[in-house]
Amino acid sequence: MQSKLMINDYVTEMYQTEGQPKGNYFFIKLDGLGEVEADRHTMDSNRDGTIFIESTLAERDIQIELIMIADEFKSMEELRREMSKMLNPKSGTLELRYKEDERSYRIDVQSAHVPTFTTDGYLSKKAQRVTLDLIASDPFWYAVEDEIHYLSNWEPNLEWELEFPMTGASELGIELERFNGDQLVTLVNDGDEATGMELYLTASGDVKNPGIIRVMADGTMTQKMKLLTTIHAGDLIRITTSVGNKRIEKWNDTQQFWENIFNTLSLDSQFIQLDIGENYLRYQTESHADQLEIKVHYRLRYVGV
């Protein structure tokens, strides 16, 4: 089994393998793949014990130990400068990626301090041991690639018997798909925690007051979002439902920025989350539902990998 680390675009390869290390970096230890503390929130009870309310995860500590190996392209001094620059605590957030076999994960981290270069027994012109202490304010690991789906009310109808020449007065064309205003789309969350979404709404014509509805398997409505606006042909609207980053935006093509249109959200709307497992969504509008397309992006979240 081979593991591989990547920190942004700086360190493209840190291998943990049998045999000889590859490249300038060879990591020998990684702590923090699963270890993260949870804070339990409770309230006093007039009976034995307490009443449990919820648990929240603390920030994640990640420690990496690696060997830097100089070669004919980079000296040890150059490697130390490169590592110090990359892990400067004042530089902000880095993206740490971890790959094991065919599965990849990512997490945003900040450096707790300047890298520690061990001198006792390891300092040389060819190899040196380094310790990195990283902190992830958001403790979840994320899938590297987004899950992408479409909320579509169009059903395919691609099976037919076709003969030439076509005969009969009713043969005016071939039906490739048909519109179904009540179709549910299944979005599967295979992660360890509920997750938000980014929804991109585009229209081929004027669409009035679009809404997204999440329903339970028994058909009861649980959550809904509705925009009190008309989407015109060529408009692009982005809805973000992630906790701590909730947004309603419209792309301003003239000035090239996302314009805040949060005020178009109806007062009874909820920012829909995708629970673990299967989630059933559909959309509705007050006019021309067949002219609306909704593209959904979401990332799976993991408490450990």
UniProtKB/TrEMBL annotation:
Siphovirus-type tail component C-terminal domain boundaries: 191-302
Domain Siphovirus-type tail component RIFT-related, first and last residues per copy: 32-121
Pfam families found in the cross-reference section: Sipho_tail (PF05709), SPP1_Dit (PF22768)
Gene3D superfamilies per the UniProt record, alphabetical: 2.40.30.200, 2.60.120.860
Signal peptide start and end residues: none
Name of the molecule in the record: Phage tail protein
